């Protein structure tokens, strides 16, 4: 198993309850953004903090020097794994409004 997939699984299993709760609101938000945006953003803040923490752990030793590009690629692969389960994760914190 690749390192980013291993970190992804460890992140989910170590925070199972938080991610399970977020998955429920995430799926509701996908169906009705206006109705669920406040709860999605509230729960999403904690999830995003956990994701950033694990992303830093994954890439921490590769940031400098010749491994900088590899670190960026690794980070993107990690984020892609997250988006497979939570495709709306990038909308955490975004305030939606009715458009005419």
What does this structure look like?
- With 100 residues, the protein is an all-alpha fold.
- The chain is built from four helices and no strands.
- The chain has one domain (3-87).
- Helix 1 crosses helix 3, helix 1 (3-14) packs across helix 4 (68-85) and helix 2 packs across helix 3 (33-59).
- It is elongated, with a radius of gyration of 15 Å.
Write the layout of secondary structure elements.
Layout: H1 3-14, H2 16-31, H3 33-59, H4 68-85
Task: Describe what is shown at a glance.
Helices cover 73% and strands 0% of the residues.
Structure keywords:
100 residues; mainly alpha; 73% helix; elongated
Count up the helices.
4
Overall geometry comes to: elongated
The chain-level mean pLDDT equals 89
* Main pleated-sheet profile: none
Structural classification: mainly alpha
Estimate the helix proportion, in percent. over 70%
């Amino acid at each position: 198993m690749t390192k980013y997939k291993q970190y992804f699984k460890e992140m989910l299993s170590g925070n199972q309850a938080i991610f399970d709760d977020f998955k429920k609101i995430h799926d509701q938000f996908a169906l009705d953004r206006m109705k669920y945006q406040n709860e999605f953003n509230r729960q999403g803040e904690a999830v995003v903090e956990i994701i950033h923490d694990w992303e830093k752990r994954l890439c921490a030793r590769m940031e400098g020097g010749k491994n900088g590009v590899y670190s960026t690629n690794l980070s993107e692969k990690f984020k892609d794994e997250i988006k497979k389960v939570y495709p709306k994760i990038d909308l955490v914190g975004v305030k939606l409004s009715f458009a005419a």
